[in-house]
Write a structure and sequence with these properties.
Layout lengths: L4 H7 L9 E4 L6 H9 L3 E4 L18
Parallel strand pairs: 1-2
Helix pairs in contact: 1-2
């Protein structure tokens, strides 16, 4: 478990299996944590901004 995903799971453990949505800051948007939360019945909403260091092969507009 990554250093970011573990605290994310710990802080949201009280709402597992409720189907609620957690709104994340871009600093907590870690794929491993999001997958684990989805397995636990928690959904994610996050703001993803195209920045200077955006991945070369990912189209920024495709995220919309």
């Amino acid at each position: 478990m990554s250093k970011t995903a573990a605290p994310l799971l710990n802080t949201s453990s009280t709402i597992f299996a409720t189907g609620k949505v957690v709104i994340l800051d871009s600093g907590f948007y870690v794929l491993q944590g999001i997958i684990e939360l989805q397995k636990m019945g928690v959904f994610i909403a996050a703001v993803v901004k195209k920045r200077r260091y955006w991945s070369k092969w990912v189209l920024g507009e495709a995220i919309n």
